[in-house]
Design a protein that fits this description.
eight-stranded mixed sheet; 31% helix; 28% strand; nine-stranded mixed sheet; alpha/beta; 16 helices
């Protein structure tokens, strides 16, 4: 196999009648998945989309998401995912930056798309999943009218397969380009790390616009297994489906694990099928991890990485509730490099750090992104010297276990979602009552971290947290809004003039 088209066609040949997807009672075989992917690929080609053009999708998790991924992977289009939680200006930026030719969206987002569609010059066709407006094509009608034959175009291994956006340090999202070769490498390494059985079952509730979900789906398809897909995370429904559908594997952010543990009736569910839970997207607090191990047993694996690349793993056998202090300390580790990945920890001069000394994590792997879309400067900076400079700060012990200690780019991780402080600051600064502001992450029992704004009000104006949340509503996604605000007379600054966020964290993180 050299491309994701090969992966899908292989699954269609080897497991045509096995379930590829289960979603709210709907069951899709690999034969049907291949058929629908081919039909959509031909339909989109008929609309004038060429290989390496971008096909956008704005939707919550749904079976149609699998169609779109399949169609793009089969025909060599680039799938360009859009975070459904974003506000209209953010969606507009991503669609235009990606120069999407077609935008497929769920009916619930019709008003949002309509509000910006006259400012989306590259989009020549809108396709609506569900009952939609008259200015959009009907998704199912488009699909059924198309040919089920293999698409005329076919991707090459180094063609771009996916364009997934992640926030940058300037607050502007950056589009990460992942090739077929890199995506296949990721699928193989993830299948190995997770120990995925052939024809097994995996439960996926992370959003499909994220690499986190994709990094679970592709290795499962490699193993001709079943994806039990949830539209979103609901702890009670997750517990019910573990008992009903018997998945062996799942992937959860630490917040999700915590919410499941808080279910009062968790003990009445049969969860014995679950053999592996991969947690990522944020560090798992050790106290929470210990609780999870007590309830679920030693089934957890930690994986560190980003949209740009996946690099480390902490396997199950290092998740111990009993052992030496050294062994127990590894519950706080993100593990060691995955097979096929290399890790360095460097200081500000680019020199390798000694054991125990924090520095920036550098990653080299076959699953790395190829570039940032339309951003050569950021690409050169991130991939200088042939290594991906992650911006995460960690140290390594004498056996190569890595321990995260900070994030170089002031990123906040709330409920598994990455939030960049500058993006929130820029939105707040558009309010006339905000003279100056800084945004930091503070500990939150439910979400891991929460956004806190430290605001200097404009003289003579009164402003409240409700005012600021209302102001942010049309500008940034709701999960990025400040959950708390402190009003101060001035912000502490360094000699360079930059805000001293270390000082702010020491004041407000308690």
């Amino acid at each position: 196999m050299k491309t994701l088209a090969d992966l899908l066609e292989r699954a269609g040949r080897q497991a045509p009648d096995l379930e590829a997807l289960v979603f709210e009672g709907r069951r899709v075989s690999y034969r049907d998945l291949l058929d629908r992917g081919r039909r959509l690929a031909n339909a989109v080609a008929g609309l004038g989309v060429r290989p390496q053009d971008r096909v956008g999708i704005l939707a919550m998790n749904c079976p149609e998401y699998f169609d779109v991924y399949s169609a793009c992977h089969l025909a060599g289009f680039i799938i360009s995912t859009v975070n459904f939680r974003l506000a209209a200006p953010e969606v507009e930026f991503i669609v235009n930056d990606a120069a999407q030719s077609v935008l497929i969206f769920e009916a619930q987002y019709a008003d949002l798309v309509d509000s910006i569609r006259d400012r989306l010059p590259s989009v020549h066709s809108f396709i609506c999943i569900g009952e939609g407006p008259d200015w959009a094509l009907d998704y199912e009608a488009v699909l059924q009218a198309a040919s089920p034959a293999a698409p005329a175009s076919r991707p090459a291994p180094d063609d771009a397969a996916q364009l997934i956006y992640t926030s940058g340090t300037t607050g502007r999202p950056k589009g990460v380009i992942r090739t077929h070769r890199a995506a296949l490498s990721m699928a193989r390494s993830q299948a190995l790390m997770l120990g995925l059985p052939v024809n097994g079952r995996i439960l996926v509730m992370m959003p499909l616009f994220h690499l986190g979900a994709v990094s679970m789906v592709l290795p499962q398809q490699l193993q001709c297994g079943t994806v039990i897909l949830h539209r979103s995370f609901d702890a009670a429904l997750i517990l019910r489906d573990i008992e009903k559908e018997k998945p062996q594997t799942s992937h959860m952010a630490p917040t999700m694990v915590q919410m499941m543990l808080e279910q009062p009736d968790i003990e009445r569910y049969d969860l014995s099928s679950l053999q592996t839970v991969c947690y990522s997207a944020a560090a798992m607090p050790v106290a929470l991890l210990k609780r999870a191990l007590e309830v679920f047993g030693p089934i957890f694996i930690n994986s560190w990485g980003s949209t740009e690349g996946i690099g480390t793993e902490l396997p199950k056998h290092f998740h111990k509730l009993e052992g030496t202090p050294r062994e127990l300390s590894r519950l706080a580790s993100i593990g060691q490099p995955q097979p096929g990945s290399e890790i360095r920890i460097i200081d500000d001069q680019g020199q390798d750090c000694p054991v125990g000394t924090p520095g920036e994590i550098l990653l080299k792997s076959d699953n790395l992104m190829s570039s940032y879309w339309n951003n050569s400067a950021a690409t050169i900076e991130a991939l200088r010297g042939g290594w991906y400079h992650s911006g995460d700060i960690a140290y390594a012990d004498d056996e190569g276990f890595l321990f995260l200690v900070d994030r170089k780019k002031d990123m906040i991780i709330s409920g598994g979602e990455n939030i960049y402080s500058q993006e929130v600051e820029q939105a707040l600064m558009q309010h006339s009552g905000v003279f100056d502001c800084a945004v930091i992450g503070v500990p939150d029992e439910k979400w891991g971290e929460a956004v806190k704004a430290i605001v200097v009000p404009t003289k003579g104006q009164q402003v409240s947290i409700d005012d600021l949340k209302s102001h942010c509503e049309p500008l940034i996604a709701r999960y990025k809004h400040p959950r708390s605000v402190a009003f101060v007379d001035e912000l502490p600054r360094l000699a360079s003039g930059k805000v001293n966020k270390l000082d702010l964290r020491s004041q407000f993180r308690a």
